[in-house]
Amino acid sequence: MNEDLQKRIEAALANPRNMGELADADRVGTVGNSDCGEMLRMWVKFKEQNGRKVIDQATFQSFGCETAIAVASLATELIRGKTAEEALALKTNELAGELGPLPPMKIHCAQLVEGALRSALTQTTPENVSKTAAPPQGGVPLIERFTAPTQGVKMTFLDEPGQP
Ligand code: FES
Predict the structure, then answer these.
(1) Which of 35, 38, 60 to mutate for ligand 1's pocket (most ligand atoms within 8 Å of CB)?
(2) 3-129, which class in CATH?
(3) Model-level pTM?
């Protein structure tokens, strides 16, 4: 990875945005990459604005590498105010925002973010799934909350056949 990209990632990580669960989210999507073992979950909440249903807020939690966290931080800002269709139309490198084009070995980190977003926005389960799907909070390690069986939340592995 070149030095400039490393600096941009470090800058994004110095002030990560939108980390953590989102109370009363309308959608949640979880993806994993079985090659590198990273996982990322994204929550999305909508609002009505000028007759359009747009993304009011998106948050994430990640067992991802620094690049995935940096992209998720930037992407959750980028999609705010967009409709689900507009957010889904964004290309992988567009989600990486000011990080700029990622080297081939890091593209899959942005694809993890794209996959979580796609999973959240294209799910067919009822809205407000996070209200029923959120595992118990107090004292439960994050890894257990990620892997615990949850109602209405499907873990997708990006390297499964048929996945982007
Ligand atoms: Fe796998 Fe970054 S190394 S998500």
Answers:
(1) 38
(2) alpha beta
(3) 0.81
